[in-house]
Design brief:
The protein is an all-alpha fold. The protein has helices at about 1-20, 25-30, 35-65, 75-105, 125-145, 160-170. The longest helix is centred in the first third of the chain and has 32 residues, at about 35-65.
Length: about 170
Protein backbone atom coordinates (compact mmCIF):
# COMPACT_ATOMS: atom_id res chain seq x y z
CA UNK A 1 0.00 0.00 0.00
CA UNK A 2 2.83 2.39 0.80
CA UNK A 3 4.51 1.88 -2.58
CA UNK A 4 1.22 2.35 -4.44
CA UNK A 5 0.57 5.53 -2.45
CA UNK A 6 4.04 6.85 -3.25
CA UNK A 7 3.51 6.10 -6.95
CA UNK A 8 0.20 7.96 -6.89
CA UNK A 9 1.85 10.86 -5.07
CA UNK A 10 4.55 10.95 -7.76
CA UNK A 11 1.92 11.09 -10.48
CA UNK A 12 0.14 13.94 -8.71
CA UNK A 13 3.45 15.78 -8.31
CA UNK A 14 4.21 15.37 -12.03
CA UNK A 15 0.75 16.68 -12.89
CA UNK A 16 1.18 19.72 -10.64
CA UNK A 17 4.60 20.50 -12.12
CA UNK A 18 3.23 20.07 -15.64
CA UNK A 19 0.49 22.54 -14.80
CA UNK A 20 3.01 25.03 -13.43
CA UNK A 21 5.40 24.89 -16.38
CA UNK A 22 3.01 24.34 -19.28
CA UNK A 23 0.22 26.86 -19.24
CA UNK A 24 -2.34 26.67 -22.02
CA UNK A 25 -0.65 29.26 -24.22
CA UNK A 26 2.70 27.42 -24.12
CA UNK A 27 1.08 24.10 -24.90
CA UNK A 28 -0.83 25.68 -27.76
CA UNK A 29 2.40 27.22 -29.07
CA UNK A 30 4.25 23.90 -28.97
CA UNK A 31 1.56 21.84 -30.66
CA UNK A 32 -0.24 24.27 -32.96
CA UNK A 33 1.75 23.42 -36.10
CA UNK A 34 2.00 19.65 -35.60
CA UNK A 35 -1.49 18.93 -34.28
CA UNK A 36 -3.76 21.99 -34.17
CA UNK A 37 -6.91 20.08 -33.20
CA UNK A 38 -5.14 18.21 -30.40
CA UNK A 39 -3.63 21.42 -29.04
CA UNK A 40 -7.01 23.13 -28.87
CA UNK A 41 -8.60 20.06 -27.27
CA UNK A 42 -5.88 19.88 -24.60
CA UNK A 43 -6.04 23.60 -23.86
CA UNK A 44 -9.80 23.56 -23.49
CA UNK A 45 -9.64 20.43 -21.33
CA UNK A 46 -7.04 21.92 -18.98
CA UNK A 47 -9.09 25.08 -18.67
CA UNK A 48 -12.40 23.31 -18.09
CA UNK A 49 -12.13 22.29 -14.41
CA UNK A 50 -10.89 25.64 -13.01
CA UNK A 51 -13.44 27.46 -15.15
CA UNK A 52 -16.29 25.25 -13.90
CA UNK A 53 -15.19 25.75 -10.28
CA UNK A 54 -15.16 29.51 -10.71
CA UNK A 55 -18.60 29.51 -12.36
CA UNK A 56 -20.02 27.18 -9.71
CA UNK A 57 -18.79 29.47 -6.95
CA UNK A 58 -20.39 32.46 -8.67
CA UNK A 59 -23.68 30.57 -9.10
CA UNK A 60 -23.71 29.59 -5.41
CA UNK A 61 -23.07 33.19 -4.40
CA UNK A 62 -25.90 34.34 -6.68
CA UNK A 63 -28.27 31.77 -5.21
CA UNK A 64 -27.29 32.84 -1.71
CA UNK A 65 -27.98 36.47 -2.60
CA UNK A 66 -31.37 35.69 -4.16
CA UNK A 67 -32.75 33.04 -1.84
CA UNK A 68 -30.71 33.42 1.35
CA UNK A 69 -29.03 30.58 3.23
CA UNK A 70 -30.09 27.14 2.08
CA UNK A 71 -32.43 25.37 4.45
CA UNK A 72 -33.69 21.83 4.38
CA UNK A 73 -32.42 18.31 4.63
CA UNK A 74 -30.11 16.26 2.46
CA UNK A 75 -32.73 15.82 -0.26
CA UNK A 76 -33.06 19.60 -0.67
CA UNK A 77 -29.26 20.03 -0.82
CA UNK A 78 -29.05 17.23 -3.39
CA UNK A 79 -31.70 18.87 -5.54
CA UNK A 80 -29.95 22.26 -5.36
CA UNK A 81 -26.66 20.60 -6.31
CA UNK A 82 -28.30 18.84 -9.25
CA UNK A 83 -29.78 22.13 -10.46
CA UNK A 84 -26.36 23.76 -10.16
CA UNK A 85 -24.73 20.88 -12.10
CA UNK A 86 -27.37 21.13 -14.83
CA UNK A 87 -26.79 24.85 -15.22
CA UNK A 88 -22.99 24.35 -15.26
CA UNK A 89 -23.25 21.64 -17.94
CA UNK A 90 -25.45 23.82 -20.12
CA UNK A 91 -23.12 26.77 -19.72
CA UNK A 92 -20.04 24.63 -20.52
CA UNK A 93 -21.67 23.36 -23.72
CA UNK A 94 -22.61 26.89 -24.77
CA UNK A 95 -19.09 28.15 -24.06
CA UNK A 96 -17.62 25.29 -26.09
CA UNK A 97 -19.85 26.11 -29.04
CA UNK A 98 -18.92 29.80 -28.80
CA UNK A 99 -15.20 28.96 -28.65
CA UNK A 100 -15.46 26.64 -31.66
CA UNK A 101 -17.33 29.28 -33.66
CA UNK A 102 -14.84 32.01 -32.84
CA UNK A 103 -11.85 29.80 -33.69
CA UNK A 104 -13.43 28.82 -37.00
CA UNK A 105 -14.10 32.48 -37.76
CA UNK A 106 -10.45 33.29 -37.06
CA UNK A 107 -9.29 30.52 -39.37
CA UNK A 108 -7.59 28.36 -36.77
CA UNK A 109 -6.10 25.18 -38.24
CA UNK A 110 -6.50 26.20 -41.86
CA UNK A 111 -3.54 25.62 -44.19
CA UNK A 112 -1.56 28.75 -44.94
CA UNK A 113 -2.59 30.50 -41.77
CA UNK A 114 0.32 32.36 -40.21
CA UNK A 115 0.89 32.93 -36.53
CA UNK A 116 3.09 35.26 -34.59
CA UNK A 117 5.60 33.29 -32.46
CA UNK A 118 5.16 34.27 -28.83
CA UNK A 119 8.24 32.44 -27.56
CA UNK A 120 11.81 32.27 -28.84
CA UNK A 121 14.21 29.32 -28.61
CA UNK A 122 17.00 30.61 -26.34
CA UNK A 123 20.28 29.23 -25.05
CA UNK A 124 18.59 28.09 -21.85
CA UNK A 125 16.12 26.11 -23.96
CA UNK A 126 19.00 24.50 -25.86
CA UNK A 127 20.73 23.58 -22.58
CA UNK A 128 17.54 22.06 -21.17
CA UNK A 129 17.02 20.14 -24.39
CA UNK A 130 20.61 18.82 -24.25
CA UNK A 131 20.21 17.69 -20.62
CA UNK A 132 16.91 16.02 -21.46
CA UNK A 133 18.47 14.24 -24.45
CA UNK A 134 21.39 13.06 -22.28
CA UNK A 135 19.00 11.71 -19.65
CA UNK A 136 16.95 9.98 -22.34
CA UNK A 137 20.10 8.42 -23.77
CA UNK A 138 21.16 7.30 -20.28
CA UNK A 139 17.79 5.63 -19.78
CA UNK A 140 17.68 4.12 -23.28
CA UNK A 141 21.16 2.59 -23.18
CA UNK A 142 20.38 -0.09 -20.55
CA UNK A 143 17.19 -0.92 -22.45
CA UNK A 144 19.20 -1.35 -25.66
CA UNK A 145 21.72 -3.56 -23.83
CA UNK A 146 18.93 -5.72 -22.41
CA UNK A 147 19.85 -4.87 -18.80
CA UNK A 148 16.42 -3.69 -17.65
CA UNK A 149 13.31 -5.29 -16.21
CA UNK A 150 9.95 -3.74 -15.57
CA UNK A 151 7.95 -4.58 -12.47
CA UNK A 152 4.80 -3.01 -11.18
CA UNK A 153 5.80 -3.00 -7.53
CA UNK A 154 9.39 -2.36 -6.46
CA UNK A 155 11.67 -5.21 -5.41
CA UNK A 156 14.93 -4.72 -3.54
CA UNK A 157 17.81 -6.14 -5.58
CA UNK A 158 21.37 -5.21 -4.69
CA UNK A 159 23.26 -6.96 -7.49
CA UNK A 160 25.03 -4.45 -9.70
CA UNK A 161 26.64 -5.35 -13.00
CA UNK A 162 29.73 -3.53 -14.26
CA UNK A 163 27.71 -1.81 -17.02
CA UNK A 164 25.19 -0.50 -14.50
CA UNK A 165 27.98 0.81 -12.25
CA UNK A 166 29.65 2.59 -15.19
CA UNK A 167 26.34 4.16 -16.25
CA UNK A 168 25.70 5.23 -12.65
CA UNK A 169 29.11 6.88 -12.41
CA UNK A 170 28.72 8.62 -15.78
CA UNK A 171 25.25 9.97 -15.16
Amino acid sequence: GLCAGLMMGGILLWSCLFGLFFQADKLLFLLKRAAPSLSVLLCLSFRLVPDLRRKSRRMKEGRLGLFGPQQGGPLRRFRAGAENLSALTTRALEDGADTAASMTARGYGLPGRTAFPQYRFTGADAAALAVTAACLAGAALPVALGRTTVEFYPVWDFTISIETFVLFVLF
